[in-house]
Amino acid sequence: MNLKEEANRCLLCKNPRCSKRCPISTPIPEIIQLFKDDQIEKAGEMLFENNPLSAICAIVCAHENQCMGNCIKGIKETPVEFYEIEKYISSAYLDSVQLKAKTQLEDRVAIIGSGPAGLTISFMLASRGYKVTLFESKEKIGGVLRYGIPEFRLPKKYLDQIEDKLIQLGVKIRPNRLVGPVLTIDKLFEDGYKAIFLGTGVWNPKRLNIKGESFGNAHYAIDYLKNPNVYRLGKKVCVIGAGNVAMDAARTAKRSEGVEEVRVFYRKDFEDMSATKAEIQEAKEDGVLFDLFKAPVEILDNGIKYINTKKITDENNKVSIVNVQGSEAVYECDSVIIAVSQSPRNNIVSNTTGLDTDKLGLLLADETGHTTREGVFASGDVVTGARTVVEAVNYAKMVAQHIDEYCKKTHQKV
Residue 300, SS3? Predict the structure, then answer.
C-alpha cells in the first residue's frame, strides 16, 4: 500500500467521525496532515502521548467498528485505512525516540501485571518521574498481548521495543514474580511504595460445565495460546467458542504441526459471533471450518458429543436459541479447545485484606480506579472483564492521572 496515496484520500473532516468512534480519541485528521507534511516525528509523538501502545493498537484494534468503519469515505467507496498509516508512524517513532523522564521524584509506585493497562500506567508515571517497578508473573512483559495473541497477528518485536522504552524511562522490571503469596501487597507498602496498581488481567478460563472437560484431549484456549508448541493436538481439532480468542486458537491450531482439520463449533450464527468480521474472515482464509448451530453436550475420548440448535422467535419478536431434541451426534476429533471467556485469578485477593470483588471475581474499583483498599488502584480486564486493548489503555490513562494526584495528596498530608 502507498501510504501517501492513502493519506491523500482522507478528507480531513472538521468533525471527524473516525476520531469520535475511536475509544481513545486519536486525532486522526491532525496525524494524517502531519504525515502528508513529512512531520513523522511530530506525528509519532502525538500518537504516543495520546496512546503509548499506538503501534500495537494499529494492529489489533477492531478497525471495522472504529476508525475505518466510521470513515465518511466508506459510504460510497473504500474507507481510508488510517491504521496502516498509524502503524508506520508509531513503529518509526519507537525506533528513533529516546525517552527521558521530565523530573525525578522519590515516590515509588508498584505496577502488578504488564498487560495493556500496566504498560500504559508504567509509561505515564515513569515519564512524570516516579520510581516505577513493574512486576510480571511470566518471563516476558506484555500480558495478553504476548501470551494471548499469536505472533502472526501481533509480532512480538513491538513488545520488545516497548520494553526498551520503559527501561529508558527508568522502569525496573521484575519478571517471573507472582505478587500475592510471597511478595504481598502489605510487603510492598512496608517497603515504601506510595501506590500500587493491579492490572493482572483475566487468566482463569471459564468452564463449559459439561462432562469430560478434565479429559486429556481437552484444553483451554487461554492456556493453549501461551505456548502452543508444547501441545500435541493430533490431526483433527474442534474449537468451542466464537470470540477473538477462539479465532486465535483455531488459526494457531491450523498452523500447528500435524493438524489437518480445525472446526469451530458455535451454538448460534455468524452474525452473533463476538469475534470481529476481519478475524472470522481471516480464519476462513486460513482454512478453518465452521459448524454453526451446534452446542457441546459432552467431551468424549474420541471427540465431542453435540446437539443441534435453532433460532426461534416468540410472539413478542424475542429471538432465542433452543436445542433440537433428538439431534445429538458425535464429531470425532483428536483435541477439543475450549474458548468461552476468562475470569481473574485470586492470587492477590486471597492474600490481601481489604480488596473486594464482585460475584465474578472482578476487582471493585470506583471511577478513579481506586479499589476498596487505600492506595491500591486497578483497571483493565481485572476490573471490567475481557475488553479490547484500546479500551484498557484509555481507562488506564485516567487511572494514571488519579494515582499521580493521590501520591501528591499523600505528600501534602505528611
Answer: strand
| 97 contact partners, CB below 8 Å, separation of at least 6 | 41, 44, 45, 48, 165
Residues 6+ apart with CB under 8 A from 204: 342, 343, 344, 345, 361
DSSP state of 207: P
Q: Which of 391, 399, 363 is nearest to 200 (CA)?
A: 363
pLDDT value of position 410? 75
Q: How confident is the model at residue 413 (pLDDT cuts 50, 70, 90)?
A: low
* Other beta carbons less than 10 A from residue 104's beta carbon: 9
Question: What's the rounded Cα separation, in Å, for the pair 225 and 249?
Answer: 6
Stretch (H or E) spanning 331? strand 329-332
pLDDT digits (tens, 9 = 90+) for 195-230: 999 999 888 899 999 999 999 999 999 999 999 999
- Smallest Cα–Cα separation from 292: which of 274, 273, 313? 273
- Predicted confidence at residue 411, as pLDDT, reads 62
- Give the residue-averaged pLDDT of 229-234: 96
Tens-place pLDDT, residues 282-291: 999 999 999 9
DSSP letter for 317, please: -
Grid cell locating 179: 505478587
**CA-to-CA dists, residue 47 to 153, 173, 285, 346, 400, angstroms:** 21, 25, 32, 35, 18
DSSP 7-63: HHT----SS-HHHHTSTT---HHHHHHHHHTT-HHHHHHHHHHH-TTHHHHHHHS-G
Task: Return d(Cα 385, Cα 388) in angstroms, integer.
Answer: 10
* Number of Cβ within a 10 Å radius of residue 288: 22
Question: Strands 329-332, 204-205: parallel, antiparallel or unpaired by DSSP?
Answer: unpaired
